[in-house]
Write a structure and sequence with these properties.
The protein is built from 1 helix and 2 strands, in the order αββ. With 62 residues, the protein is mostly helical. It has a domain of 27 residues. The chain has a two-stranded antiparallel ribbon with strand order 1-2. The longest helix has 39 residues.
């Protein structure tokens, strides 16, 4: 009986390792797709330029 338990534990361990490997690969693929989508989107151009107000010294949008 002990060899049967050892075989079952080994098979269970292999199944767990395979599941973890596939999950890690899927998550890394999703992260890579998100990273590439972020790189592909154009840079925002609606950010105003700040100029210093000579009277108050504060920076204000152009």
């Amino acid at each position: 009986m002990p060899p049967l338990i050892a075989l079952a534990a080994t098979l269970g361990g292999l199944v767990a390792v395979r599941w973890l490997y596939n999950t890690a690969r899927r998550i890394n693929q999703e992260l890579e797709e998100a990273r590439m989508a972020r790189v592909a989107e154009p840079a925002r151009r609606d950010i105003p330029t700040l100029r210093r107000d000579s009277r108050t010294g504060a920076y204000r949008p152009d």
